[in-house]
């Protein structure tokens, strides 16, 4: 039995694609017994519990002890389910989840802990004020170090993250795998059909000659929305056929761009409808600020852009993906002083790259290795 342990993660599109779909893949493709143990906030607990169980009915959804600073107090509840199900592996999807699993180890029931590293967490908390409690900020470095160095095995979302671990925490083990954020089933099964795409473009009043740029994401700090204003103004001035789609919460940048006569459509849609808008576009915008958080990141939006046939306009030093764009000729690294000429491209090429590099099936052997770690 494998536990996949999450802590303080609410159900979302990311949670579905990077947690629930992974569990289903390990269960269905690798024939492994795996159970989701999800500690979530007591705020909107019933609603969020029902959302998770609607996707994965046998998951165990538990109320967190209030306040992230009290994370250790969830140990006894986790211990109850460890005694009940006797897992041989616990995968912790966060620094806190992994430390909770490590603290719950005892001689009566042994299991291996795998740290599922999603980013440079200490830097993320400090650079983008993800957590502001002084007590947590004071201990996050040691908690991340503990998760990296004391786990039996590790998953990293990028090679750059491994390099960060080595530089920051003197990590030198080879006991890790790199598995980037992968697309969910909805994006795997997309039909790249020219008639369907032209129909979607007409619904949005795009002409055949229009070059459509899209930003899809949140307004979180690391998304660096403020950096987009200058870039979009430049793209709009240099490309008279340029039109822009924003799929995100309302933001002052959108209104400022409209005042500058930029041709923008703005929508905020449910995650399961995003792909329709992506299919109608030509280029995906993935511009991030220069930070340690972004230098090791693996934005799932990159893979989703590719799966919908888009080329990607990306900032330099964004995880492993800036290099990927150059190596596979699937977009452009944005350079302020360089004029870029854009045209509509063959969507099949980007879509094939997504299937080759960013589906869960393309990491079948890596997931299999995780499930075969033996106690010693």
Strand order, biggest sheet?
A: 3-2-1-4-5-6-7
Please identify the top-level CATH class of the largest domain.
Answer: Alpha Beta
CATH superfamily of the largest domain: Glycogen Phosphorylase B
**CATH fold group of the largest domain:** Rossmann fold
The count of DSSP E runs of length 2 or more, i.e. the number of strands, is 13
* Main β sheet profile: 7 strands, parallel
SS element count, helices: 17
CATH architecture field of the largest domain: 3-Layer(aba) Sandwich
Quaternary organisation of the protein chains: single chain
Helix content: 40-55%
**Low-confidence spans: pLDDT under 50, at least 5 residues?**
none
Quickly give the structural class.
Answer: alpha/beta
Reading the helices and strands in chain order gives EHEHEHEHEHHEHEHHEHEHEHEHHEHEHH
Shape: globular
Which whole number gives the mean pLDDT?
A: 94
Based on CA atoms alone, the radius of gyration comes out at 21 Å
């Amino acid at each position: 039995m494998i536990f996949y342990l999450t802590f303080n993660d609410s159900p979302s599109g990311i949670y579905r694609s990077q947690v629930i779909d992974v569990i289903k893949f390990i269960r269905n493709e690798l024939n492994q017994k795996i159970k989701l143990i999800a500690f979530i906030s007591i705020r909107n607990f019933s609603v969020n519990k029902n959302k998770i169980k609607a996707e994965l009915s046998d998951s165990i959804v538990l109320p967190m002890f209030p306040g992230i600073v009290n994370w250790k107090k969830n140990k006894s509840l986790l211990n109850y389910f460890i005694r009940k199900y006797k897992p041989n592996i616990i995968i912790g999807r966060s620094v806190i989840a992994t430390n909770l699993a490590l603290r719950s180890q005892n001689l009566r029931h042994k299991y291996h802990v795998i740290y599922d590293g999603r980013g440079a967490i200490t830097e993320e908390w400090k650079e983008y004020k993800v957590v502001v409690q002084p007590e947590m900020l004071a201990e996050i470095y040691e908690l991340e170090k503990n998760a990296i160095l004391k786990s039996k095995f590790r998953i990293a979302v990028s090679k750059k993250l491994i390099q960060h671990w080595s530089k920051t925490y003197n990590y030198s083990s080879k006991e890790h795998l790199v598995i980037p954020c992968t697309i969910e089933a909805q994006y795997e099964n997309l039909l790249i059909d020219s008639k369907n795409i032209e129909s979607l473009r007409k619904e949005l009043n795009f002409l055949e000659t229009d070059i459509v740029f899209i930003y899809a994401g949140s307004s979180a700090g690391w998304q660096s929305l403020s950096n987009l204003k200058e870039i979009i103004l430049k793209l709009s001035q240099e490309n008279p056929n340029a039109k822009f789609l924003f799929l995100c919460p309302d933001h002052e940048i959108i209104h400022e761009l409209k005042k500058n006569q930029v041709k923008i459509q703005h929508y905020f849609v449910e995650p399961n409808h995003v792909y329709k808008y992506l299919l109608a576009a030509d280029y995906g915008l993935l511009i991030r600020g220069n930070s340690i958080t972004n230098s090791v990141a693996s934005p799932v939006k990159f893979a989703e852009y590719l799966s919908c046939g888009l080329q990607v306009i990306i900032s330099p030093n964004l995880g492993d993906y800036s290099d990927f764009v150059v190596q596979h000729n699937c977009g452009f690294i944005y350079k302020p002083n360089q004029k870029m000429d854009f045209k509509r491209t063959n969507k099949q090429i980007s879509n094939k790259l997504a299937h080759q590099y960013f589906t869960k099936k393309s990491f079948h052997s890596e997931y299999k290795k995780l499930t075969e770690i033996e106690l010693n």
